[in-house]
Amino acid sequence: MNNDFTIKIVTFTVNDDKLLVYLSDSHLPQGKIESGESLDAAVGRIFKDTLNLSVYDYYFEQLYTFSKPAKTTTKIEVVYYILLPKFVLKSLNNWFSLAKSDLARLVDRKIISYAIQRLQWKIEYTNIVYSLLSKEFTLSELQKTYEAILGKELDKRNFRKKILLLGILRKTAKVRKGIKARPALVYEFRKRTPEMVKVFS
C-alpha cells in the first residue's frame, strides 16, 4: 500500500481588528512532499511559492495529521498553521475574514475552524501573539489583536492590569499620538520567541 502525502497550510494575520486567513481559489495552500524532503522543508517551499516569504522568519507549528485508508493507498494530510504580522504583506488580496457566515462556505472550513481553536488555546498560555504584531505597539493594539483571535471583547482595565503584571512587555520611550485620543505609550515584547506564560486564568 502506498502513502499519498499532502501538506495544507493555514496562514493567519490580523487587519482592521479582524482575524484573516489566506486562501487561493477558496482553498488553503497545499502541496506534495518531494523525495528526500522533510515536512518543515516542504512547508517552507510551499509557503515561499505562495507568499514569497520564508516560513522560518515567523511562528509556525504542525496542527495535526489526518489519515484516510483506502484499498490501494492511504491518504495522509498534514496541516500546519503560520502567524504573520500585517506589515510584512505587500497586499491583502486573497486574505479573507473568518466570520462564521463566510467560514461555512469554505471547502477547508473544518481545518480552519480547528486552527482557530488551537490558536485561541495557544494564546491563553503562551506569548505567541507577538507573531501577529509589529515590534512596537500600544496596549490598545495588543488588546484588539487578542480580541480578533478570541472573537470577543475584553474588559480594557482588567486586560491592561493582567498583561502588565505578567512582565512580558517592556515600555519604550515612545508615544503614539492619535487624532482624538491622548498619546498612547508604546510597548514591545521582552522576548519575541515562544514561551509559556499564563495570559488568561
From TrEMBL:
Transmembrane segments: none
Origin superkingdom: Bacteria
Protein known as: NrtR DNA-binding winged helix domain-containing protein
Record domain NrtR DNA-binding winged helix: where: 130-189
Species for this entry: Candidatus Gottesmanbacteria bacterium RIFCSPLOWO2_01_FULL_39_12b
InterPro entries the record matches: NUDIX_hydrolase-like_dom_sf, WH-like_DNA-bd_sf, WH_DNA-bd_sf, WHD_NrtR
